[in-house]
Amino acid sequence: MSGQAEFSIDEDEAGRAVLRLSGPYLISTIGKIDQDLLAIDREIAEIDLEAITEIDTVGAWVVCQLSGQHDAEISGASERAQRLVSAVHTARNDADIRPPQRPLWEWLPAHMGDLVFKAWRGIVNVIGFMGQVLIACGNLIAHPGRFRGKALVRQMELVGVSALPIIGLMSFLIGIVIAQQGAVQLEQFGAESLTINLVGRITLRELGVLMTAIMVAGRSGSAFAAQLGTMKLTEEIDAMRTIGISPIEALVIPRILACTFMMILLGFYASVVAIVGGAVVGDLMLGIPFWTFLTRIEEVVPTYDLWVGLIKAPVFGLIVALAGCYHGLQVRGNSEEVGLRTTMAVVSAIFAVIVLDAFFAVFFTEVGWG
Amino acid sequence: MDQPAQDEHERFHGDHPIVVEGLKTAFGEHVVHENLSLKVNRGEIIGVVGGSGSGKSVLMRAIIGLQTVAAGNIDVLGHSITSAEPDDNLGVRCRWGVLFQGGALFSTLTVGENVEVPIKQFYPDIEDELLHEIARYKVILSGLPEDAVSKYPSELSGGMKKRAGLARALALDPELLFLDEPTAGLDPIGAAKFDQLTKELQQTLGLTVFLITHDLDTLYEICDRVAVIADKRIIAVGTIPELIESKHPWIDEYFNGPRGRAAAHGKVSATNSATGVDIQTDSEA
Fold first, then answer.
1. Distance set, CA A334 to CA A247, A331, A338, B108, B154 (Å)
2. Architecture of the domain spanning B12-95+214-285
3. Chain A residues contacting B, CB < 8 Å?
4. Residue B158: what pLDDT?
5. Tell me, what CATH number does A50's domain have?
6. Looking at chain B, which residue has its C-alpha nearest residue A83?
7. Tell me, what's the ipTM?
8. Cβ contact B10–A94 (<8 Å)
9. Which residues of chain B have pLDDT under 70?
10. Sheet containing B30-40: which strands, arranged edge to edge?
């Protein structure tokens, strides 16, 4: 038996062309011969399958195509070949493999319109979600017994306590970097001692809270979205509704409260650790003793800097939690959506936090807390 | 040309395309199979039944090389699956098709593209035009409507997903077909049609079918033999009448329980009046 599919053309007694196929006509051998078979330019009256050793539906399909193209009859087919040819003959299909695509000039405006409508629906949904949260808050105030204390404590642990090591490490390093880089620049003016002002004010006012918010968005905002999204997919949220538990009260409110409250503590903690990091650099590189650095912080940083940070922190926490829960509850359909919504939750939370931070900066300067 | 290359284009002509001998599989301490043996005859539809968690799917995964085996030997189409490195089995891998429980279609590709994936993987020298033609007729052979070929899996119903999965399993014209609970989650009409399709394809394409099922109707309708897994091994293999005679308590409860009797009764009345089959062909057309 030869391992190749082959063909030859000769003429029978009546002078008609006969295509004789031989060897295995299988999916594994057809690739080499298919183009040659299609390129036959003379009229074939008969296709002889006598010498075919093996055939599968792909071979049968090619035979069927050839016979249709040349209007040729098939002869010498084994019982199996006959069966396969008749099976694929009735399975003709002219549909496209890809869904039909619209031309660019049609697709582009349609796509932009889609985006606009989606953006509008998004705004409506966000407002609706805020409304739901407010109503749930009202209900909880009216019926404090329904409040889920355990869930709140659990979320506070997840959002706050377990984030302490990573946020501590991050803030410590940021403190070190600010002090070290600041000192290099300030040295040019002979003002290394102002490094203390730099570290103290920038961490308490801006970076401590901002970096913490970004970290919490990445850690907890994404977790909220993925958890709620998965619960939505597995119909757990529908199950809660049928039992009479409001998912907003049971799932969203504890997360929002935990995130808002823990952001205050985490933001303050991050600022303090960053100042300690700066003090370490001061001690090792600038010759400012560690305790002197900390005492000077008290003298050079106005108290309102601390308030600026502490006022921003809960707002950022609220935004991160709202974005995470909102996107989680928007999950529909399949698991791909969970990933998509988780990404959107983190991106939109960080974006909103940075935009709001800019507003806060302007606002606090205007009110004289510059 | 050397010997293996010839083998590549030859169908399996032995009597037993699947031979499992002394199989032992375990997850840590938990032993799933112990000294399990099974021989599948060429050209038959063998149904594998067993309680939930008895290791039906694990057996299938072991046979297709997805599950590491603690002891024993598995030969598929004359090649040992257990003793060879996974990459050595590529030649055998293209000779079987698997339909997973949920269909396991690639969700970012259309049905047609799903069918093309294994063909492109194993036979990159096939021209695009022929490739598309193959994908199209496989979709029709699997009993899907023409336009399903350009649809995404998320646009299909459960029954259509199963059929699309079957089309992909049949993409390489396999000799062996593994079906993991093909009728689970289908309505009775869809399930009956799927059974019929399996039987038709098995006869037309000359397939050997390894079918895991909980569906008693499927067993009665299309299975030539049934293998029963219990107590970590195959306790019996045979036709349904043979198994019904069995004294084993699990088999007795399985076939002579209320559902088993109902399925048997349905089969008897269907063959007596022949209406069951008529109605199926009617609604298919």
1. 20, 8, 7, 12, 8
2. 3-Layer(aba) Sandwich (3.40)
3. 1-3, 24, 26-32, 34-35, 53-54, 56-58, 61-62, 65, 80, 83-84, 87-88, 90-100, 333-334, 336
4. 82
5. 3.30.750.24
6. B204
7. 0.76
8. no
9. 1-9, 86-90, 267-285
10. B30-40, B18-27, B71-76, B79-80
